[in-house]
Amino acid sequence: MNNNKYKKNKLIIMLFLMSFVGCASQQQHGSKYLCKQQDAEIHIDGSTLFFNGDLSEDSVLCAINMAQGHDIKTLNVRSEGGVIDDAMYFAHWIRDRQINVEINELCFSSCANYIFPAGVIKYISERDLIGWHGGAFQKNIEFRDYAEKQQFQLYIRKARKKEVSLYSRLGIDPRLPTIGQEDEYFCQNNGELGWFYSVEDLTSLGITNIVLTDNKWEPLNFHSEMVCQVSL
Predict the structure, then answer these.
(1) What are residue 132's phi and psi, to 5 degrees?
(2) Residue 49 belongs to what H/E stretch?
(3) CA–CA separation, 201 vs 125, rounded Å?
(4) Which residues are CB-contacts of 169 (< 8 A; sequence separation ≥ 6)?
(5) How remote is the C-alpha of 132 from its chain's centroid?
(6) What is the pTM (predicted TM-score) of this model?
(7) β partners of residue 53
(8) Which residues of the chain have pLDDT under 50?
(9) Tens digits of per-residue pLDDT, 54-71?
């Protein structure tokens, strides 16, 4: 198998199959609450919950448990993605509590699929990268062996139901995570890991209430090696 192609497929498969070890540790330090673990660093400052790391069962539960008793208004997030089940659970929690989402440099994969759209208001700065590269309904995933394929298929049936339910709740076009894989819109011709949409196209897909904190957002000026643009 081509190495670059395998790397892309491996990234996608990891959304479903990665496991995590280690337990979270929490500290209270003045007005800040800290949580450090293997895959994420999380803290609260005032009414903002800061989340920096992978979306896993441990990190999501740490964030949610830490937020108890706090009037959280905004989630400031930096994440390359993670397990889609856990990301969708977090997304429902965000929308249940009418929390805004502020991107901190990077929101990719499961973060872009579920966390970003779940925010009531979505804040993006000029240099932020929000990137998609597939979801529960994507096709043409390659596996290392039959056992990995079987494990994936058992998992994905439930994940697809959850994705349909979440997007229905948020009023989002279910094609959001996979449009860039369609022949008509495919743009990853130079080894890019994924794609992004313009604010106008995001709005057409049902992602509204986007605020550009610098009054502009042009990811290709800063992240052209990682993503290409899908234009609808």
Answers:
(1) -115, 150
(2) strand 48-53
(3) 17
(4) 92, 95
(5) 8
(6) 0.86
(7) 40
(8) 1-32
(9) 999 999 999 999 999 999
